[in-house]
Structure formats: C-alpha cells, structure tokens
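User: Please fill in residues for this 145-position structure.
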C-alpha cells in the first residue's frame, strides 16, 4: 500500500471529520431555536448586515445559488427571512430578516461561547484558535483559486 493513500496520512480526512463533528456539536444548541447549521450561517451573515442580495450571500457563504436558494425558500416558509425582487434589476433577489429572524440573534448570542466549551478534554487556547483560523483562511483562499 502507498503511504500517501493511508487514511491516517490525509489532512482532508481530518478536516472532513472536524467539520462533521463541529456541525454535530452545534445541533443541540440550534434545535431549541428551530435552526439547522446552514440556516444559522445565513442568519449570522444577515445579522452582520441585513438586506443582502442572494449573490452576496452566495459569495459570503461560499455556496452556489442552487444550494442556497432551497435553503432560503425553507427559511422564508419558517418566517425567518423575506425574499423580494430587486427594484433596479428584477433578476436579483434581496433577502431580509423578519422580526422573527431578528429576534433569534438575541437567543443565539451565547452559542459561540457554548461551542468554545466543547473543547473540554484538552483546552485549546485563544492564540491557537486564532492561528488555526488564519491557517484555514489561507487554505480556503488557496483552494478557491
């Protein structure tokens, strides 16, 4: 067997596993709010700046339109967002928070703190997390090209 094909030698497997486990850790925090992790991501972007074009959301979340549109449709049915056609360009769709979507920000404000507490076994220091974020951002930028 080739060493480069061993699962234990794969960075991608560790990233995949970490992503899956982090998403799983969010589930009990988001369920009381009636949110999935992808919905939470959309809301975080809209809490930063409301009234965004679908294309802006796609770029910010690094998702294709065909992935984001069904998610936004579900969120609209649940009363979290409203989608409206652009005035200047009817091909564009603007996404805005509803009162319910705005209200969820207050309910979700402790989720990041709860997630940091998930690393109970071996504490990960703030410096290490900041470094990891920087490393992952560089990796993402490199892979986007």
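Assistant: Residues filled in for all 145 positions:
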């Amino acid at each position: 067997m080739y060493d480069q094909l061993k699962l234990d030698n794969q960075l991608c497997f560790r990233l995949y596993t970490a992503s899956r486990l982090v998403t799983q850790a969010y589930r009990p925090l988001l369920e009381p709010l009636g949110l999935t992790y992808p919905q939470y991501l959309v809301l975080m972007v809209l809490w930063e700046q409301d009234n965004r074009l679908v294309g802006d959301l796609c770029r910010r979340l690094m998702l294709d339109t065909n992935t984001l549109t069904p998610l936004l449709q579900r969120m609209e049915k649940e009363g979290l967002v409203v989608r409206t056609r652009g005035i200047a360009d009817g091909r564009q769709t603007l996404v805005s928070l509803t009162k319910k979507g705005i209200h969820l920000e207050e309910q979700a404000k402790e989720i990041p703190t709860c997630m940091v507490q998930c690393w109970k076994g071996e504490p990960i220091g703030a410096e290490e997390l900041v470094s990891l974020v920087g490393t992952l951002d560089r990796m993402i930028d490199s892979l986007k090209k």
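For context: Residues 11-30 form the longest helix (20 residues).
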